[in-house]
Structures are given as C-alpha cells and as structure tokens.
Amino acid sequence: FAARSWPEMTELLANDVFVDDRRPVVSSGMQHGRDVDIANMRALAIIGVTSMTSTLIATRGEHLALSRARMTGRDQRPEAFHTEVLDVVEINADNQIAAHIAFDANDTESAFEELDARYLAGQSTERAHTWSAIVEAYAAINRGQLFSLTTDFEDVDHRRGAAMAPGDMIKFLGSALEQTPDLTIHIAAVHRLSPHGAIVTHAANGTSPNGFEAEWREVSILMVDGDQVQRIEVFDEADLGAAVARFEELQPPPHHLE
Questions:
Q1: What is the SS3 string spanning the chain?
Q2: Residue 73: exposed, middle, or buried by beta-carbon count in 10 A (0-12, 13-18, 19+)?
Q3: In Å, how far are 161, 163, 198, 256 from 132, measured between CA atoms?
Q4: Most buried in the list 7, 64, 124, 166, measured by CB within 10 Å?
Q5: Sign of the torsion formed by the C-alpha atoms of 104, 108, 110 and 115
Q6: Tens digit of pLDDT for each residue in 59-100?
C-alpha cells in the first residue's frame, strides 16, 4: 500500500474490472472500473491498512482462483485488528484482474459456488454437463449424503499405504459421513476435464469422534455417465503424473469417419 504501488496496481487491473462485494454487513455492493477499484484501495490505506496478503485456496483452469485475503495495519500481533475476506478472482487474456467477488470469511460454500459457476460458464456444452455432475457429487458429500452411482460403478485406490480393496471406497465413504458429520471436501484444482470425466485435487477436513481434527489432500479421477458417477480412482497428491496417464487411458477412442 505504499505510494509507489499504485502504478503497479493500475497495470494489474483491467480497465473495466468488475467488483462485487457480497459480504452481508460491510458490503460495498457492485462497482465497475479500474479507477473505482483504485479509489477503494486508497480508502483502505487512509483508514490504516498497510498490508494485504493472499492465501490461495483453489483454482479453476488458468483464469480463476479463490483466495483468502487478509488486511492488516502496522500492528502485526495476532490479536491486533485485521479483516479477512474470501475473494474469487478472474483474470483476462492479458493477465489482468477482470473481476473479483468478495465473500464473508466464513462463507466458503458460496465462494466455491461462484468459482464453479464461472468455470462452468467457460466450458463447452459436453464438458459443462460433466463438470456439473462432478460438482454435484462433491456437494452431496458436503450435505452428508452419498452421490448417485451407475450400476456398473467401479473404484480403484492407488494410494501407497492407505489403499482400499476395489469396491470398498463407497462403504468407507458412507462410514466416514456417519462418524465425521462435519466432513467437507472441496475441489482445490482441476487438472483435466473432458466430456467423460476429470482429474481433480481435493482437500478434505473433518473432526473424528474422539475430537481429532484432520485435513488431507488427494488426486482423484472421476468418470461420469450422464448425471451419475461411473468410476473413481484415487492417487496420492504427489502422483499427479500417474493420474494423468491413467485418465488418458480411460478416455474412449475417437470416432473415425468411414
């Protein structure tokens, strides 16, 4: 927020940048234009904000990200005044911020819904349908429910040390939902998306019956048929390369004209 940062911020913002503040109490509403956004930044500096940090939570493709922004003053002690917001940011083809939508720091579900809606809008019809089915599968888990499966559903666990036998994954998930009612899983990154499925990294967290809080990340392949999940294959987060190779194997062969 130093004076020399304003020209740099101008370069980072699209001329027609769109800002939508959806926080329930301190919302500044909808605003348009680079000058308005810069004016808002200057106003924050005037009231004492000296630093803004951003922690990445999730991405969608090359142009969308969800982050947690934290604004603080000169006093950096943990108990000092600070403000946190969830911010969905969209980048244009010129690598400038074209839109950012702010949510209350605790409104995680709404922030992810906006992130996925904007990602969905940029997909072809076939991929959009696939993405909608995958998002709904994760939404079902976060509602404490199992998602819809095809009659020929299969699962494979490729993880080292924690692998489950084929066919046990849904049973395990059902048990986890019963024992961990606060279990939440959100897609942190989309690595591949086709008309038939996707590779994602998801982040899960929850509290066990004995009060132990856990958080873990995995890479998953989800193949869908219509609105139902047909196959899930799970990998350790470090094995993304193996997951990508497996995903390519699962794609149906292209149709050739006679």
A1: CCCCHHHHHHHHEEEEEEEEECCCCCCCEEEECHHHHHHHHHHHHHCCCCEEEEEEEEEECCCEEEEEEEEECCCCCCCCCEEEEEEEEEECCCCCEEEEEEEECCCHHHHHHHHHHHHHHCCCHHHHHHHHHHHHHHHHHHCCCCCCEEEEEEEEECCCCCCCCCCCHHHHHHHHHHHCCCCEEEEEEEEEEECCEEEEEEEEEEECCCCCEEEEEEEEEEEEECCEEEEEEEEEHHHHHHHHHHHHHHCCCCCCCC
A2: middle
A3: 32, 28, 11, 28
A4: 64
A5: positive
A6: 999 999 999 988 776 665 555 556 889 999 999 999 999 998
Asked whether the beta carbons of 58 and 186 are under 8 A apart, the reply is: yes
Q: What's the pTM value of the predicted model, to 2 decimals?
A: 0.83
